[in-house]
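From the thread on structure requests for the teaching lab: each student submitted one protein with a one-line request. Submission from student K.M.:

"Model Hsp70 family protein from Micromonospora sicca, tokens only."
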Amino acid sequence: MRAGEARLAIDCGSASTVAVVAWPDGRWSPLMFDGEPALSSAVFLSEDGSLLTGQRAWQAAVAQPERFIPAPRRSVEQQVPVVGGEVEALDLVAATLRRVAEEAHRAVGFPIEDVRLVVPAGWGPRRRTWMRHAAHRAGLPQLRLVEAPVAVAGHLLASGVQLPVGSFIVVCDVGGGVEVSVLRRGPAGFEVLATLADPDAGGAAVDRALTAALTGDEAGPGVDEGARWALTASVQTAKHALTNHAAVTVPLPAGPVAVVNGQMLEQAARPILRRTAQLTTEAIAAAEVDPASIAGVYCAGGAAQMPLVEKVLTEDVGIAPVVVADTGLAAARGAADAGAAGPGGQVTVEEPSPVPPVRRAVAIAVPGFASLGLVSQFLLTAEWNGGFLRPWAVLNWGELAIAAVFAVIASLGAGTVIASAIASRGTTEPISPGGQVGTGILASASLGVAVAGMYAVVGSLYIGADVGPFLRWALLPVVPIVVVAAVMALVAARQWRTPRGGWSELLAFPTGSVVTAAVGMALIQYSLVADRWPDMVLWIDIAGRVGGLLLGVGVVMAVVSPLVLRVILAAPLAVITAAIVSRPASVILGVIYAIAVALWWIRQVWRRIVRPDRQPVRAT
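Reply posted by the TA:
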């Protein structure tokens, strides 16, 4: 894995920070801090001036609470008072980001150059610039800012949620605070229509309310600052544990152990979560969107895991929300996805390049010219029998089959080019990039079948024979290829993420296999129809055997990618195909090659569906 291939996405919230490392092929993994996927955003200023983060900050707060800053990000562009002095909030946030960068370096083994940072949609240029400065101070490279609701929407698309262009969705980000945003999906990405936030209506407010319910007030009577932070940490743990347990115990600083159950949590959290519901209703109204046209309300953020969130929103808003998968990591995952974040925080997806690379042009031209060459030889070298009155031709049907296969390969190779043409139609009828590629594959497969059918019709007219055998040998060998290509088109339409190396790389059939098989079949046909003068018989036979050998090598090159396996398998198969060269066997050789091409397509579908984490091996 090279340094330029990994991406780091950080969601630095007011209460906690999460981060994921991702790769263009779709693999991702969360960074772990103290054994957990979330790092507390709290910071502790030690006496020697060093900064402790995460659990170490909370542990140190018990002994020296005056040096503890629980939510540094809320103090944007302010000096934070600490033990009679002040510390810049920028340094506090930078300390958390620096630890994330160190953990990412430890996880992948090299510095990551592509960094995305999630920010609230309601932040203006001043706060976003402040966050960039914090990241720079932490040693991070130039990064890309992604708005939190836009990142969540990107995660929804990557998870397979169907959000048509033009639809409206609501994203409720319930973390330490709450931010509710209304988005519209446009042709180029998601647009934030309205966003409302309340820093005192999220998980941190629930923690304070639950603490007050246990102790009589938020701090607890007679509880010093150090004990208060220890109690807050215990309450946070209890709140998360109640998601899977009926009741948990919480040690109190000045009393016996308290038992917290779901009813107590609901009584403390309901008034706060009703504020979230109120923000949702107000955001929909501010966006001037008819509630009936909302495609869905999606909840993300660490506090969204509380079952009460879904219940309250359903009761007060009238729309049953959906808690997104990996809710705490949703924004980071959306920002990390390949092509998920574009400039300005817009979600964009990689589209087929309007100008294909040279290798793509070669992948189209080589099988195209090979197909024309073989079908020409097929027609021009027919052996005529039966005399002048009733002539009939002996034809190499295997050569026609391979010519048809090459025509389909050339057409399918142009699939991404056709997709680019579809993309350039404009935005009056927007099509997703996956849909563009899928439509391009189907269109190119239809083109290949049409060319193969044309070969059959032209051949029957040129020879003056019934079209049936021509259609049989031109179309039947390509049917499995077209079927598998249709499956790939469906996969492309359903999976918007561009495969590693691009669709052109994934769909490029091995050019070396085409050249080898084409030369092999041409030599076989030459050996079958050449004038067998006494002094040429040996050379003609040798040419046929070499042709069979090359065709066998072409089959292996299509089915197998690793060079070592190609060498191991090509030797016996090439010997067999060289040994059976004859007129009846030429049909068998053509069918074998058609099957090999179908197997290549099946392998590409397998890599795209079953093993998307593996990089496609570029064939030559």
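TA comment: Residues 357-610 form one domain. The first helix runs from residue 55 to 61.
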